[in-house]
């Protein structure tokens, strides 16, 4: 139960939106439900891809430092 003291005169009971723009620009479909398991999989895959990209960048930096050290690149 919520006390009426916490309600503001401008509080809206129901909010409605039109997902048309999100569907057109992002291909998002509000009727397609993603299971929690799929959501976790998607998030983990995104994190793993980010880490792989960061590591690749670090490897390039390491290679460059090595090349500079050896005089291969000036």
TrEMBL record:
<dbReference type="InterPro" id="IPR036291">
    <property type="entry name" value="NAD(P)-bd_dom_sf"/>
</dbReference>
<dbReference type="Pfam" id="PF16363">
    <property type="entry name" value="GDP_Man_Dehyd"/>
</dbReference>
<dbReference type="InterPro" id="IPR016040">
    <property type="entry name" value="NAD(P)-bd_dom"/>
</dbReference>
<protein>
    <submittedName>
        <fullName>GDP-mannose 4,6-dehydratase</fullName>
    </submittedName>
</protein>
<feature type="domain" description="NAD(P)-binding">
    <location>
        <begin position="2"/>
        <end position="43"/>
    </location>
</feature>
